[in-house]
Amino acid sequence: MDDHRAQVEELLADYRRSREQLASVQRELAAVCGRASSPDGTVEATVGSGGKLVGLELSESAYRRHRPEQLAELIVRTVAAAAASAAEDTYQALSAVLPSATDPAALVAGTADLLPSEYAVDDTETVDLGRQPVRGRRDDDEDNEQRESWLDSELIDRRVR
């Protein structure tokens, strides 16, 4: 009986350690912050956890140095660099709790257990949601056509009756 009690206590201790490690990683992830500046220093971007833009500073000279479309492009590039920096911090925080063979970037992207052929994006299937391309199943269009033709024929049959 004492042997089982010792095993249960050991399992509980392992669980508590794992839980504390997970809480620590969650705190690290919540504190992720990536910063970047444009090469000319006129744009500074700060990106928080999850790639969310949390700060953007434009120097007064940014408006004089760049035409609007150039400034917009510079902002996008600077924010992307800040997001890449935040992503690296995210990957490092996750690496502490992931098995050594797991790619943190693939885990965050949602492709860790998929083959490249399962998540490869075909340009004809891409929908831009402002963040990441989302693809539909290849057979969705075919299924929809079959479903629509089936519905159409059923509607026609009802009208004829």
UniProtKB/TrEMBL annotation:
Source taxon at top rank: Bacteria
Gene Ontology terms, MF aspect: DNA binding
Ranges of biased composition (kind: Basic and acidic residues): 146-161
Coiled-coil ranges (or none): 1-28
Region of interest (Disordered), residue spans: 123-161
Keywords: Coiled coil, DNA-binding
InterPro entries linked: YbaB-like_sf, YbaB/EbfC
This protein's record includes keyword Membrane: no
UniProt cross-references to Pfam families, sorted A to Z: YbaB_DNA_bd (PF02575)
Name of the protein in question: Conserved DNA-binding protein YbaB
Natural source organism: Lentzea albidocapillata
